[in-house]
Amino acid sequence: MDDRQSNVSSNRTTLVWDLPLRIWHWAFALTISASLYTGLSGDIALIDWHQQLGYCMLGLLLFRLGWAFWGGRYGRYAHYRFSPQGIWRHFLGAPRATPQTAPGAAIALAFVVLVAAQVGTGLFATDDIFTEGPLTGHVSRETAQAMTWLHHRIFWLLLVAVAVHLTAHIVYAARGDATPLAMITGRKAVNLPPTTQRVGYALVTAGAAAAVVWVFLWLA
């Protein structure tokens, strides 16, 4: 009887990723993919699209910043705990106390930091011919060149993060772990209280992020 109860408990799933966070996750992934393609294709005709995607990404980053404080329970960065020891314990099979594994939390924060750096440097970047960021004219030529140099190299780290992320999900899928589906269903097999959706908060946060980007570009 105890074994059967344990099996039932282990098979139960809980809503841990709220709908706004899941929508943000896929919008973030698609925008990264499109930005990398338009930036690396070598097609000058796509540069305008690359810039527009950068502004979209800025809005997504602002939304995630807000959602880190007043979003669903497990989407807040207070739950994104990791350390070298925690990552090592995860690979040794230690149970987790939050829906986010230590390696998962690390790669999620790495994505946000790298994309923020890529967007930030892109605002000052220039090709000295056709295209420049909205803030290029506010800094010296040397600063703009340094930002451009960084913008053309940070993406390599971003590609590494993408490769690590996808490889991890392939490994999970091969082991029969449902983790890769969590950002679709929002559910994970954890013994934790469910999250709240906070759709109203999400709409206000998205509107505020879009307004900040619009005002920024208008002032720039």
Keywords:
two-stranded antiparallel ribbon, disordered N terminus, mainly alpha, 8 helices, about 0% strand, about 220 residues, Fumarate Reductase Cytochrome B subunit, 2 strands, globular
> Share of helix among residues?
55-70%
Largest sheet: 2 strands, antiparallel
Number of helices, counting only DSSP H or I runs of 4 residues or more: 8
Instruction: Tally the structural domains.
Output: 1
Shape: globular
What name goes with the CATH superfamily? Transmembrane di-heme cytochromes, Chain C
User: How is the largest sheet built, in terms of strand order?
Assistant: 1-2
Q: Which blocks of ≥5 consecutive residues have pLDDT under 50?
A: 1-10
Give the CATH class: Mainly Alpha
Q: Total strand count, please? A: 2
Please report the distance between the alpha carbons of the first and last residues: 67 Å
Oligomer: single chain
Radius of gyration computed on alpha carbons: 20 Å
State the secondary-structure class: mainly alpha
The fold-level CATH name is Fumarate Reductase Cytochrome B subunit
Give the H and E element order: HEHHHHHHEH
Q: What is the architecture at the second tier of CATH?
A: Up-down Bundle
Provide the residue-averaged pLDDT. Answer: 88
